[in-house]
Amino acid sequence: MTHRQTISTGTPWEKAYGYSRAVRVGNIIEVAGTVASDENGNVMGATVYEQARYILAKIERALHAAGATMQDVVRTRMFLLDITQLDEAGRAHGEVFGDIRPASTAVGISGLAGAGFLIEIEVSAVVQKKGAGTNV
């Protein structure tokens, strides 16, 4: 049986909605859609770029807790309230993933789970080898 590891970042929605920030099964890690909120649900960042950078740092912490790094990311998905702000999101994405170059999707949507959120990002990662902090 493959070990299942769940990672929480302590946001109020994780427990209330019954989900984990990330789940690792074997060498696959799925990180849930992540908005720019702190542990108390406060919006962090006023622009798409600022929120995307905050989200990517939050995702990086979740990946680290699962024994992975941003280098292991193979897929990203960005959901924007205003698709005309894709360049801001893309700039933040490029600063983090420029040499990694995961497959990526960006879509415009009509709403996110809370006022003030401008972007939501989710990622998929595949750990290629065992390393410190892994459970496989």
Describe the structure.
The protein has a 6-stranded mixed sheet with strand order 1-2-3-6-4-5, covered by helices on one side. The longest helix is centred in the middle third of the chain and has 18 residues, at 48-65. The protein is built from 3 helices and 6 strands. The N and C termini lie close together (11 Å). Helix 2 (48-65) packs parallel to helix 3 (86-97). By secondary structure, it is an alpha+beta fold. The protein has a single domain (4-123), classed as RutC-like (60s Ribosomal Protein L30, Chain: A, 2-Layer Sandwich), CATH 3.30.1330.40.
Considering the chains and any ligands shown, give keywords for the structure:
26% helix, 136 residues, disordered C terminus, alpha+beta, 60s Ribosomal Protein L30, Chain: A
